[in-house]
User: Which sequence fits this backbone?
Protein backbone atom coordinates (compact mmCIF):
# COMPACT_ATOMS: atom_id res chain seq x y z
CA UNK A 1 0.00 0.00 0.00
CA UNK A 2 1.41 3.38 -0.98
CA UNK A 3 0.41 6.78 0.34
CA UNK A 4 -2.05 8.61 -1.92
CA UNK A 5 -0.71 11.32 -4.25
CA UNK A 6 -2.21 14.80 -4.78
CA UNK A 7 -5.84 14.73 -3.66
CA UNK A 8 -8.86 16.62 -4.98
CA UNK A 9 -12.06 16.35 -2.96
CA UNK A 10 -15.31 16.96 -4.82
CA UNK A 11 -17.67 18.07 -2.09
CA UNK A 12 -20.36 20.47 -0.89
CA UNK A 13 -20.17 22.36 2.36
CA UNK A 14 -23.41 20.96 3.84
CA UNK A 15 -23.19 17.38 2.51
CA UNK A 16 -22.95 15.07 5.52
CA UNK A 17 -21.05 12.42 3.57
CA UNK A 18 -18.51 15.00 2.34
CA UNK A 19 -18.08 16.20 5.94
CA UNK A 20 -17.12 12.61 6.92
CA UNK A 21 -14.32 12.48 4.36
CA UNK A 22 -13.02 15.93 5.32
CA UNK A 23 -12.75 14.74 8.94
CA UNK A 24 -10.81 11.63 7.89
CA UNK A 25 -8.45 13.60 5.62
CA UNK A 26 -7.80 16.12 8.40
CA UNK A 27 -7.16 13.43 11.04
CA UNK A 28 -4.66 11.82 8.66
CA UNK A 29 -3.01 15.20 8.09
CA UNK A 30 -3.47 14.90 4.32
CA UNK A 31 -3.61 18.08 2.21
CA UNK A 32 -6.36 18.31 -0.41
CA UNK A 33 -7.83 20.71 -2.88
CA UNK A 34 -11.60 21.20 -2.76
CA UNK A 35 -13.95 21.45 -5.75
CA UNK A 36 -17.43 22.41 -4.57
CA UNK A 37 -20.61 21.24 -6.35
CA UNK A 38 -23.72 23.16 -5.34
CA UNK A 39 -26.24 20.40 -4.67
CA UNK A 40 -29.12 22.88 -4.39
CA UNK A 41 -28.44 23.93 -8.00
CA UNK A 42 -28.12 20.29 -9.18
CA UNK A 43 -24.43 20.74 -10.05
CA UNK A 44 -23.75 17.09 -9.15
CA UNK A 45 -25.79 16.09 -12.22
CA UNK A 46 -23.90 18.31 -14.66
CA UNK A 47 -22.64 16.26 -17.67
CA UNK A 48 -18.94 16.85 -16.98
CA UNK A 49 -19.29 15.70 -13.39
CA UNK A 50 -21.38 12.66 -14.40
CA UNK A 51 -18.65 11.71 -16.88
CA UNK A 52 -16.20 11.72 -13.97
CA UNK A 53 -18.57 10.10 -11.43
CA UNK A 54 -21.60 8.28 -12.89
CA UNK A 55 -23.24 8.16 -9.47
CA UNK A 56 -23.65 11.94 -9.57
CA UNK A 57 -23.08 12.23 -5.84
CA UNK A 58 -20.57 13.89 -3.58
CA UNK A 59 -18.11 13.22 -2.09
CA UNK A 60 -15.64 11.87 -4.63
CA UNK A 61 -11.89 11.91 -4.13
CA UNK A 62 -9.54 12.16 -7.10
CA UNK A 63 -6.29 10.31 -6.36
CA UNK A 64 -3.40 9.04 -8.44
CA UNK A 65 -5.17 5.67 -8.24
CA UNK A 66 -8.30 7.10 -9.91
CA UNK A 67 -11.54 8.62 -8.70
CA UNK A 68 -12.90 7.15 -5.47
CA UNK A 69 -16.56 7.41 -4.48
CA UNK A 70 -18.71 6.60 -1.45
CA UNK A 71 -17.54 8.14 1.79
CA UNK A 72 -16.94 4.92 3.75
CA UNK A 73 -15.00 3.35 0.87
CA UNK A 74 -12.88 6.51 0.62
CA UNK A 75 -12.15 6.51 4.35
CA UNK A 76 -11.19 2.80 4.31
CA UNK A 77 -8.83 3.62 1.40
CA UNK A 78 -7.23 6.45 3.35
CA UNK A 79 -6.81 4.15 6.35
CA UNK A 80 -5.14 1.48 4.21
CA UNK A 81 -2.81 3.82 2.31
CA UNK A 82 -2.03 6.20 5.16
CA UNK A 83 -2.40 4.08 8.30
CA UNK A 84 -1.17 6.58 10.89
CA UNK A 85 -3.16 7.55 12.93
CA UNK A 86 -5.49 4.59 12.41
CA UNK A 87 -9.24 5.08 12.10
CA UNK A 88 -9.95 1.40 12.80
CA UNK A 89 -8.76 -0.54 15.88
CA UNK A 90 -6.58 -3.65 15.67
CA UNK A 91 -8.63 -6.75 16.50
CA UNK A 92 -11.12 -8.13 13.97
CA UNK A 93 -14.05 -8.04 16.43
CA UNK A 94 -13.28 -4.43 17.41
CA UNK A 95 -12.95 -3.45 13.76
CA UNK A 96 -16.33 -5.07 13.08
CA UNK A 97 -17.91 -3.09 15.92
CA UNK A 98 -16.48 0.22 14.64
CA UNK A 99 -17.69 -0.56 11.13
CA UNK A 100 -21.11 -1.56 12.49
CA UNK A 101 -21.44 1.72 14.39
CA UNK A 102 -20.47 3.65 11.24
CA UNK A 103 -22.96 1.63 9.18
CA UNK A 104 -25.71 2.28 11.73
CA UNK A 105 -25.32 5.91 10.65
CA UNK A 106 -24.34 5.52 6.99
CA UNK A 107 -26.90 2.81 6.12
CA UNK A 108 -29.71 3.24 8.64
CA UNK A 109 -29.95 7.01 9.25
CA UNK A 110 -28.24 9.20 6.67
CA UNK A 111 -29.82 7.73 3.48
CA UNK A 112 -33.29 8.56 4.79
CA UNK A 113 -32.74 12.25 5.40
CA UNK A 114 -30.50 13.48 2.63
CA UNK A 115 -31.63 16.18 0.25
CA UNK A 116 -32.76 13.99 -2.66
CA UNK A 117 -34.96 11.82 -0.45
CA UNK A 118 -36.56 14.78 1.33
CA UNK A 119 -37.18 16.32 -2.09
CA UNK A 120 -39.03 13.22 -3.29
CA UNK A 121 -41.12 13.07 -0.10
CA UNK A 122 -42.32 16.57 -0.81
CA UNK A 123 -42.60 16.51 -4.60
CA UNK A 124 -43.96 12.99 -5.23
CA UNK A 125 -45.69 12.16 -1.95
CA UNK A 126 -46.90 15.63 -1.01
CA UNK A 127 -45.32 15.49 2.44
CA UNK A 128 -45.39 18.99 3.97
CA UNK A 129 -42.78 20.52 6.26
CA UNK A 130 -44.36 18.97 9.36
CA UNK A 131 -44.53 15.48 7.85
CA UNK A 132 -40.92 15.72 6.63
CA UNK A 133 -39.74 16.81 10.09
CA UNK A 134 -41.57 13.86 11.67
CA UNK A 135 -39.91 11.53 9.13
CA UNK A 136 -36.47 12.96 9.88
CA UNK A 137 -37.00 12.86 13.63
CA UNK A 138 -38.23 9.26 13.51
CA UNK A 139 -35.26 7.84 11.61
CA UNK A 140 -32.58 9.86 13.38
CA UNK A 141 -34.20 9.05 16.74
CA UNK A 142 -34.43 5.31 15.99
CA UNK A 143 -30.84 5.17 14.83
CA UNK A 144 -29.50 7.32 17.67
CA UNK A 145 -31.26 5.09 20.25
CA UNK A 146 -29.33 2.09 18.89
CA UNK A 147 -26.08 4.08 18.77
CA UNK A 148 -26.56 5.39 22.31
CA UNK A 149 -26.57 1.77 23.55
CA UNK A 150 -23.49 0.92 21.49
CA UNK A 151 -21.58 4.00 22.69
CA UNK A 152 -22.47 3.26 26.34
CA UNK A 153 -21.00 -0.18 25.84
CA UNK A 154 -17.93 0.64 23.76
CA UNK A 155 -17.15 4.33 24.28
CA UNK A 156 -14.46 5.59 26.61
CA UNK A 157 -14.47 9.33 25.99
CA UNK A 158 -14.94 8.85 22.26
CA UNK A 159 -17.72 6.87 20.58
CA UNK A 160 -15.51 3.77 20.37
CA UNK A 161 -12.71 3.59 22.89
CA UNK A 162 -10.47 6.49 23.81
CA UNK A 163 -9.38 7.82 20.43
CA UNK A 164 -10.90 9.20 17.24
CA UNK A 165 -12.14 6.53 14.84
CA UNK A 166 -14.26 5.93 11.76
CA UNK A 167 -17.30 6.23 14.04
CA UNK A 168 -16.49 9.88 14.76
CA UNK A 169 -16.13 10.61 11.05
CA UNK A 170 -19.80 9.61 10.72
CA UNK A 171 -21.17 10.67 14.11
CA UNK A 172 -20.09 14.32 14.13
CA UNK A 173 -21.77 15.06 10.76
CA UNK A 174 -24.91 13.15 11.79
CA UNK A 175 -25.23 15.17 15.01
CA UNK A 176 -24.76 18.37 12.98
CA UNK A 177 -27.64 17.30 10.72
CA UNK A 178 -29.83 16.29 13.65
CA UNK A 179 -29.39 19.74 15.21
CA UNK A 180 -29.99 21.45 11.87
CA UNK A 181 -33.37 19.71 11.68
CA UNK A 182 -34.22 20.38 15.33
CA UNK A 183 -34.27 16.72 16.41
CA UNK A 184 -34.68 16.24 20.19
CA UNK A 185 -31.44 14.91 21.67
CA UNK A 186 -32.29 14.54 25.38
CA UNK A 187 -32.40 10.74 25.13
CA UNK A 188 -28.86 10.39 23.81
CA UNK A 189 -26.44 11.86 26.40
CA UNK A 190 -23.58 9.45 25.76
CA UNK A 191 -23.84 10.00 22.01
CA UNK A 192 -23.86 13.79 22.32
CA UNK A 193 -20.93 13.77 24.76
CA UNK A 194 -18.85 11.51 22.50
CA UNK A 195 -19.64 13.54 19.39
CA UNK A 196 -18.83 16.84 21.10
CA UNK A 197 -15.57 15.41 22.38
CA UNK A 198 -14.64 14.52 18.80
CA UNK A 199 -15.91 17.81 17.39
CA UNK A 200 -13.61 19.66 19.79
CA UNK A 201 -10.50 18.23 18.13
CA UNK A 202 -9.08 21.01 15.90
CA UNK A 203 -8.71 18.61 12.95
CA UNK A 204 -12.38 17.65 13.22
CA UNK A 205 -13.45 21.25 13.81
CA UNK A 206 -11.70 22.34 10.58
CA UNK A 207 -14.00 20.01 8.62
CA UNK A 208 -17.18 21.76 9.85
CA UNK A 209 -19.53 22.87 7.05
CA UNK A 210 -19.40 26.52 8.10
CA UNK A 211 -15.64 26.56 7.62
CA UNK A 212 -15.65 25.34 3.99
CA UNK A 213 -14.85 27.72 1.12
CA UNK A 214 -18.31 27.34 -0.46
CA UNK A 215 -20.26 27.97 2.77
CA UNK A 216 -22.36 31.15 2.75
CA UNK A 217 -20.40 33.88 4.49
CA UNK A 218 -17.37 31.62 4.92
CA UNK A 219 -14.99 34.44 4.09
CA UNK A 220 -16.35 36.43 7.04
CA UNK A 221 -15.55 33.70 9.58
CA UNK A 222 -12.31 33.74 11.56
CA UNK A 223 -9.82 31.21 10.22
CA UNK B 1 -6.59 -12.64 13.00
CA UNK B 2 -8.02 -16.03 13.97
CA UNK B 3 -10.76 -17.97 12.21
CA UNK B 4 -14.19 -17.46 13.78
CA UNK B 5 -15.54 -20.15 16.12
CA UNK B 6 -19.08 -21.64 16.06
CA UNK B 7 -21.35 -19.22 14.23
CA UNK B 8 -25.04 -18.47 14.78
CA UNK B 9 -26.73 -16.26 12.19
CA UNK B 10 -29.81 -14.34 13.31
CA UNK B 11 -31.70 -13.78 10.09
CA UNK B 12 -34.98 -13.81 8.21
CA UNK B 13 -35.51 -15.58 4.92
CA UNK B 14 -36.55 -12.50 2.93
CA UNK B 15 -34.24 -9.92 4.55
CA UNK B 16 -31.91 -8.63 1.84
CA UNK B 17 -29.15 -7.80 4.33
CA UNK B 18 -29.34 -11.32 5.82
CA UNK B 19 -29.13 -12.77 2.31
CA UNK B 20 -25.82 -10.87 1.82
CA UNK B 21 -24.27 -12.47 4.89
CA UNK B 22 -25.49 -15.95 3.95
CA UNK B 23 -23.78 -15.55 0.55
CA UNK B 24 -20.50 -14.51 2.20
CA UNK B 25 -20.62 -17.37 4.73
CA UNK B 26 -21.30 -19.87 1.96
CA UNK B 27 -18.52 -18.55 -0.29
CA UNK B 28 -16.13 -18.86 2.66
CA UNK B 29 -17.38 -22.41 3.28
CA UNK B 30 -18.24 -21.58 6.91
CA UNK B 31 -20.89 -23.66 8.68
CA UNK B 32 -23.50 -21.73 10.68
CA UNK B 33 -26.66 -22.30 12.62
CA UNK B 34 -29.65 -20.12 11.70
CA UNK B 35 -32.07 -18.49 14.14
CA UNK B 36 -34.97 -16.92 12.23
CA UNK B 37 -36.77 -13.78 13.44
CA UNK B 38 -40.08 -13.17 11.68
CA UNK B 39 -39.86 -9.48 10.75
CA UNK B 40 -43.52 -9.39 9.71
CA UNK B 41 -44.47 -10.32 13.28
CA UNK B 42 -42.01 -7.77 14.77
CA UNK B 43 -39.88 -10.53 16.32
CA UNK B 44 -36.76 -8.40 15.88
CA UNK B 45 -38.13 -6.05 18.55
CA UNK B 46 -38.78 -8.77 21.14
CA UNK B 47 -37.09 -7.87 24.48
CA UNK B 48 -34.74 -10.86 24.50
CA UNK B 49 -33.47 -10.06 21.01
CA UNK B 50 -33.10 -6.34 21.81
CA UNK B 51 -31.01 -7.29 24.84
CA UNK B 52 -28.71 -9.18 22.49
CA UNK B 53 -28.79 -6.59 19.66
CA UNK B 54 -29.98 -3.10 20.62
CA UNK B 55 -30.40 -2.19 16.97
CA UNK B 56 -33.28 -4.65 16.70
CA UNK B 57 -32.33 -5.56 13.15
CA UNK B 58 -31.22 -8.66 11.30
CA UNK B 59 -28.73 -9.94 10.39
CA UNK B 60 -26.57 -10.42 13.45
CA UNK B 61 -23.83 -13.03 13.71
CA UNK B 62 -22.93 -14.56 17.06
CA UNK B 63 -19.22 -15.46 17.12
CA UNK B 64 -16.73 -16.34 19.82
CA UNK B 65 -15.66 -12.69 19.54
CA UNK B 66 -19.17 -11.48 20.45
CA UNK B 67 -22.27 -10.50 18.51
CA UNK B 68 -21.60 -8.75 15.19
CA UNK B 69 -24.17 -6.56 13.48
CA UNK B 70 -24.55 -4.74 10.15
CA UNK B 71 -24.12 -6.91 7.08
CA UNK B 72 -21.13 -5.12 5.56
CA UNK B 73 -19.25 -5.05 8.87
CA UNK B 74 -19.93 -8.78 9.29
CA UNK B 75 -18.68 -9.57 5.79
CA UNK B 76 -15.50 -7.51 6.31
CA UNK B 77 -14.96 -9.47 9.55
CA UNK B 78 -15.36 -12.77 7.73
CA UNK B 79 -12.90 -11.61 5.08
CA UNK B 80 -10.34 -10.63 7.71
CA UNK B 81 -10.66 -13.76 9.85
CA UNK B 82 -11.15 -16.26 7.03
CA UNK B 83 -9.34 -14.71 4.06
CA UNK B 84 -9.68 -17.57 1.56
CA UNK B 85 -11.32 -17.12 -0.89
CA UNK B 86 -11.07 -13.32 -0.60
CA UNK B 87 -14.13 -11.10 -1.09
CA UNK B 88 -11.99 -7.98 -1.62
CA UNK B 89 -9.24 -7.61 -4.25
CA UNK B 90 -5.62 -6.79 -3.37
CA UNK B 91 -4.81 -3.20 -4.36
CA UNK B 92 -6.13 -0.31 -2.27
CA UNK B 93 -7.79 1.42 -5.24
CA UNK B 94 -9.49 -1.83 -6.33
CA UNK B 95 -10.65 -2.46 -2.78
CA UNK B 96 -12.08 1.06 -2.66
CA UNK B 97 -13.98 0.43 -5.91
CA UNK B 98 -15.47 -2.84 -4.62
CA UNK B 99 -16.47 -1.18 -1.37
CA UNK B 100 -17.96 1.77 -3.30
CA UNK B 101 -20.04 -0.56 -5.48
CA UNK B 102 -21.26 -2.38 -2.38
CA UNK B 103 -22.08 0.94 -0.69
CA UNK B 104 -23.96 2.12 -3.78
CA UNK B 105 -26.36 -0.71 -2.93
CA UNK B 106 -26.13 -0.80 0.86
CA UNK B 107 -26.27 2.98 1.43
CA UNK B 108 -28.05 4.38 -1.63
CA UNK B 109 -30.66 1.73 -2.57
CA UNK B 110 -31.46 -0.82 0.11
CA UNK B 111 -32.20 1.58 3.02
CA UNK B 112 -34.97 3.23 0.99
CA UNK B 113 -36.95 0.10 0.24
CA UNK B 114 -36.74 -2.10 3.28
CA UNK B 115 -39.86 -3.12 5.19
CA UNK B 116 -39.73 -0.51 7.95
CA UNK B 117 -39.39 2.39 5.52
CA UNK B 118 -42.18 1.17 3.25
CA UNK B 119 -44.33 0.74 6.35
CA UNK B 120 -43.77 4.36 7.38
CA UNK B 121 -44.53 5.63 3.87
CA UNK B 122 -47.90 3.93 4.06
CA UNK B 123 -48.81 4.47 7.70
CA UNK B 124 -47.52 8.01 8.32
CA UNK B 125 -47.53 9.54 4.83
CA UNK B 126 -50.56 7.75 3.40
CA UNK B 127 -48.65 6.48 0.36
CA UNK B 128 -50.75 3.86 -1.40
CA UNK B 129 -49.49 0.79 -3.24
CA UNK B 130 -48.95 2.75 -6.47
CA UNK B 131 -47.01 5.53 -4.75
CA UNK B 132 -44.86 3.01 -2.87
CA UNK B 133 -44.09 1.14 -6.09
CA UNK B 134 -43.06 4.40 -7.77
CA UNK B 135 -40.82 5.19 -4.80
CA UNK B 136 -39.18 1.74 -4.93
CA UNK B 137 -38.74 1.88 -8.70
CA UNK B 138 -37.21 5.35 -8.55
CA UNK B 139 -34.52 4.55 -5.99
CA UNK B 140 -33.65 1.11 -7.34
CA UNK B 141 -33.57 2.52 -10.88
CA UNK B 142 -31.36 5.47 -9.91
CA UNK B 143 -28.94 3.24 -8.04
CA UNK B 144 -28.89 0.55 -10.73
CA UNK B 145 -28.11 3.15 -13.42
CA UNK B 146 -24.98 4.15 -11.49
CA UNK B 147 -24.05 0.51 -10.88
CA UNK B 148 -24.58 -0.41 -14.53
CA UNK B 149 -21.88 2.15 -15.47
CA UNK B 150 -19.53 0.85 -12.76
CA UNK B 151 -20.03 -2.79 -13.79
CA UNK B 152 -19.44 -1.94 -17.47
CA UNK B 153 -16.15 -0.37 -16.44
CA UNK B 154 -14.95 -2.89 -13.86
CA UNK B 155 -16.79 -6.16 -14.50
CA UNK B 156 -15.30 -9.10 -16.34
CA UNK B 157 -17.96 -11.77 -16.02
CA UNK B 158 -18.70 -10.82 -12.43
CA UNK B 159 -19.65 -7.34 -11.20
CA UNK B 160 -16.03 -6.56 -10.31
CA UNK B 161 -13.42 -8.52 -12.21
CA UNK B 162 -13.63 -12.22 -12.88
CA UNK B 163 -14.42 -13.66 -9.46
CA UNK B 164 -17.07 -13.40 -6.77
CA UNK B 165 -16.60 -10.41 -4.46
CA UNK B 166 -18.31 -8.29 -1.83
CA UNK B 167 -20.23 -6.64 -4.68
CA UNK B 168 -21.99 -9.92 -5.51
CA UNK B 169 -22.95 -10.40 -1.86
CA UNK B 170 -24.94 -7.16 -2.20
CA UNK B 171 -25.97 -7.27 -5.87
CA UNK B 172 -27.66 -10.68 -5.94
CA UNK B 173 -30.04 -9.82 -3.05
CA UNK B 174 -30.74 -6.38 -4.54
CA UNK B 175 -31.70 -7.89 -7.90
CA UNK B 176 -33.95 -10.39 -6.07
CA UNK B 177 -35.70 -7.47 -4.35
CA UNK B 178 -36.00 -5.48 -7.58
CA UNK B 179 -37.71 -8.43 -9.27
CA UNK B 180 -39.96 -9.00 -6.27
CA UNK B 181 -41.20 -5.42 -6.61
CA UNK B 182 -41.52 -5.63 -10.38
CA UNK B 183 -38.87 -3.01 -11.18
CA UNK B 184 -38.11 -2.68 -14.91
CA UNK B 185 -34.61 -4.02 -15.62
CA UNK B 186 -34.24 -3.45 -19.37
CA UNK B 187 -31.79 -0.58 -18.85
CA UNK B 188 -29.31 -2.63 -16.87
CA UNK B 189 -28.09 -5.55 -19.00
CA UNK B 190 -24.53 -5.67 -17.62
CA UNK B 191 -25.83 -5.60 -14.06
CA UNK B 192 -28.36 -8.38 -14.65
CA UNK B 193 -25.79 -10.55 -16.44
CA UNK B 194 -23.22 -10.12 -13.67
CA UNK B 195 -25.78 -10.82 -10.94
CA UNK B 196 -27.10 -13.93 -12.69
CA UNK B 197 -23.57 -15.19 -13.19
CA UNK B 198 -23.01 -14.87 -9.44
CA UNK B 199 -26.43 -16.33 -8.57
CA UNK B 200 -25.58 -19.43 -10.59
CA UNK B 201 -22.73 -20.35 -8.25
CA UNK B 202 -24.05 -23.16 -6.00
CA UNK B 203 -22.74 -21.42 -2.87
CA UNK B 204 -24.64 -18.27 -3.78
CA UNK B 205 -27.72 -20.23 -4.84
CA UNK B 206 -27.86 -21.95 -1.44
CA UNK B 207 -28.30 -18.54 0.21
CA UNK B 208 -31.50 -17.76 -1.76
CA UNK B 209 -34.47 -16.76 0.42
CA UNK B 210 -36.65 -19.61 -0.84
CA UNK B 211 -34.08 -22.13 0.36
CA UNK B 212 -34.00 -20.94 3.99
CA UNK B 213 -35.60 -23.01 6.76
CA UNK B 214 -38.11 -20.26 7.66
CA UNK B 215 -39.29 -19.66 4.08
CA UNK B 216 -42.92 -20.56 3.42
CA UNK B 217 -43.04 -24.04 1.93
CA UNK B 218 -39.28 -24.47 2.31
CA UNK B 219 -39.66 -28.10 3.35
CA UNK B 220 -41.40 -28.86 0.05
CA UNK B 221 -38.49 -27.59 -2.07
CA UNK B 222 -35.87 -29.94 -3.46
CA UNK B 223 -32.63 -29.77 -1.47
Assistant:
Amino acid sequence: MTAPGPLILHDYWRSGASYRVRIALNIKGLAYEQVAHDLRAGAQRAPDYLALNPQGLVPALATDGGLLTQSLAIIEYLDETCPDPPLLPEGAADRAMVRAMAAAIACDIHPLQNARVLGWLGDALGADEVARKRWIGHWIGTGFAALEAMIRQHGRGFAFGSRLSLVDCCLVPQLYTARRFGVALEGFPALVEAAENAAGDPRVAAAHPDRQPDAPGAAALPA
Summary: Chain B has two domains: 8-85, 92-205. Chain B has a mean pLDDT of 93. The longest strand of chain B covers residues 8-11.
